Batch of 2 targets.
Target 1
Amino acid sequence: MQQMTAELRRDPAPSRVTYRMQRLWLTPSFRFAVKAVLPAATLAILGTWYIDGDSARRTLDGFVEDIRRSVAERPEFMVRFVSVDGASEELDGSIREILPVEFPISTFDLELDRIQSVVESLDAVASADLHIRPGDILHITVRERVPVAVWRAGESLALIDAEGAIITHLRRRAERADLPLVAGEGVDAAVPEALAVFAAAEPLEARLRGLVRVGQRRWDAVLDRDQRIMLPETGAVSALEQVIALDHAQDLLARDVSAVDMRNPRRPTVRLGSEAVDELRRIKALEAGGADR
């Protein structure tokens, strides 16, 4: 009952704020400002922002860049040194020389992917891994290619690894006389087979001068005294082992033989040297003369 009485006594008149707003709305100048001036001003501001947007953005970008730079150049974010692991002294020097970085540099400015690509562009580098180590150090771990043979292609000499990748070029064969020699076109695609042939040819190591790639399909093993063992396109190792077995049994390679043709392992062919051919002709001539008598 008391609540109902309170509601009946509530003043129906508008509040003071509402009354003032209603009075203000009745003012012609206020209505004009709301309906015309305010939209026009909004459009003008938007237009000005649109026209000067590039300048405003440049100002904002400059402000953001200043903040970023002030953070990036703090001592804890600076890299001042580089260390290289897994590389020979010569390769270490080459890596440091081509690094596209000037120290000190902020970690925010280090493009590790780009640096990795530059390091891996060196022929002697198989792969590289980069990371930032505590103590302001850019650490580079490389896997250096290991030379397994000297490749002669025309007049060019190069060191190659087990994958056939060129490591570096040589001026003279004597610079790496400790490595076997392979020659011809297409060698880089058949290095694993060449290494297997060299391993099988160990009993002939003292006489073996190298392997020649023929027609990018097969190998010739070149011995001293201008002897050749002509190996087949497939089964080169087993064919060479057959020749070595024949040599042990019959001193085949100690004879006046210019080539042992194993291109068809089921029908090996022996080519005689020039002196042996002349002697054979002489014997046949003598035999023929004796028969005529």
Target 2
Amino acid sequence: MKPLDIGSRLSRDFPVDGHYLIGVSGGRDSVALLHWLVNLGYKKLIVCHLNHQLRGRSSDADARFVQKLVDRYNQEFVEQAPRHPGSRTGKRSARPTTRRPDFHFELGAVNVRALATKQKMSIETAAREARYEFFAQTARHRNCKTIFLGHHADDLVETFLINLFRGAGTTGLSGVRENSTRRIGDVNLTIVRPLLGLWRKEIDSYVREHRITFREDASNENLNPLRNRFRHRIIPYLEKIFGRNIRPAIWRAAAIAGEEEDWIDRQLPDSTNAELSVAKLRALPVALQRRAILKWLRAQKVSEVGFDVIERVRSLIDQHARVAKVNLARNRHARRRAGKIFVE
């Protein structure tokens, strides 16, 4: 997918004169996405930044950086506009804009470490859940239900492999999608990832070429988080074994899984209820039972969901099963009572 094609399709599906949220951490990918969207003509962006409070003064500095970035776009965009990622000419827009941009900054803060402890989640899961809750609150406040995020092709590959090793099946393999809808509370948030067809090296080149400043997160080099181990150790090792770049093939497999999952997802019962109906679950084919349970567990914010967990929950619908309670991650449980399955 060429960057120009991405921009053309994006502006067709999401007109440039609309209001949109954009998640900006201050890191390379999200800052590059903001830069590119501005060039495409998106001038009504609400920049959302959540301070996770995980890195002390560095986290506070990230928030200040993003706010200054928004201020600078509001001040300077009239004089000159940047170009899109992938363009090799380095030329700026020949026709200056005549309409002032309308960028806004929304800041949130959550003690993610405390949240992870309270909710019995990993730091990574708690941070992700906190971000989406913040995005949903902002969407409700701003009456704007579409958000742009800076995930790219390497993120898709990493997510695919992580979920593959967790045994999540094709539901998990679809992982990150270009366009998706996520219900958070009473908000149906449309999530758009315009850079999902671009590789990290392409974004790096764009950032260098335009001398875009961003905040470097030292935790990206920390090998404790699973994603970082896949990024820095496992994928390079697999490429060494195969003797070639395996990422495009994995990206294609993830894209195909995502398209198939979109169709299958529409066949599943509603997953937003706090309880699952045993009778309705029994009526489904086994394949859809597993998918329905996975979707429901995720809606209940259950972490570390793999095949074994899904099968334990599925065992609760067996008419002859004596066990009415199974273990989940983080000291949580799924229980069957009065024809319903719920998480406690």
